[in-house]
Amino acid sequence: MKNTPIRLIILLGSLTLIGIISTQIFWVSKAIKNQEQQFSHNVQMALRNVVESLCEINGNDISNDPIEQVSSNYFIARTNYSINLSSLDYLIRAELEKRNLKEDFEFGVYDCQTESMVYGDFISFGDEKVEPHGKLPKLHNEEYYFGVYFPNKSGSLDLGFWKFTSAITVLITVFFGYALFVILRQKRLSEIQRDFVNNMTHEFKTPLSTLMLSAEVLENEIRSEKGKRYAQIIKDESLRLQQHVSRFLDTTSIEHGAKTKKMPVDVDAAIREVADRFSGFGRQVDHDLRCGKMVLGDPENFEKVMSNLVDNAIKYGESKVEIKSWSEGKKIKIVVLNDGKPITPEEQQKVFDKFYRTPSGDRHDVKGFGLGLYFVKRSVEVIKGKIHLESGSSGTAFTLTLPAHE
Fold this sequence. Notes:
The chain is of the alpha+beta class. Helix content is 52%, strand content 19%.
């Protein structure tokens, strides 16, 4: 796996996660602020009604803006006259219940004559035992007023929905971290595997070349027919193993974006050369070449693409292999056909996958590693082309669509 997609995934994932967390923090803060404001408004309205009720009882006028919020959970209400503690308890409780504010509270009254805060009582709406504060702060004020303190106000906010969404955000963060860990570990394993394959194939090339050279020397030096036959076997098997090693190297190279040559390639001439070479090995390859155009790419890679397609057609065909080429405007069409058994639709979706080989039961009469068609597809994509497979009772056809080079 290349570094660029990994970095892009990490960047986009991190930005998305930061966006989700920032949005969550914003809306939770906004929800807390709104509930704080709603609570303060309800308490102030309740205490204002208490002041109005006290004024009606005593026949006094209500002062302008009698309610003041000293802190988030402490409120005072000015009355400009002495207050009876016994009636204040009932009035505050009734007004709070009317607004569904069942919050435990303490209250007290400031006496101007003694300049002291007289503690009233602690009122609880629930069964939960709470230690009362015991006294209320005295403000520097020459007016009569009473104070109401809510000791449990911080726990009264209804944040159930936001707790749920916050838990979901935490789960998303944990999942992203775990996914990132798995991706990076898989990338590391992929790099180790790639380095191992590269080192292994490179280490094989030198002894294989030595074996082939030694086999040629033995073939020339040995006089007996039996010895020459064994030397030829060593040479042929060394050549076959060298081809497998080269295929591994080619696949790894193109898979990791190695730079390739870009030059015009005569399509018909390259196909004819491949067909003649296979025909020289005793495998008849018919061709009908009417393209007459060039494709921009690596000549060596293009030759390997056609060789893989022809070799695949020979392996899985019965007796007939044919190559056709023609041009359609700015496109080049190349078709490699054989008369083998049809490939099922399920297998057609997998034949271009790396290491995939069409199953044939317990038989292993067709050799290979499943890299040929994978290499073909990747090579065709490098030169901005496409490959398409059609298979039926009449045989199998691989169609290449390549951009023509003007």
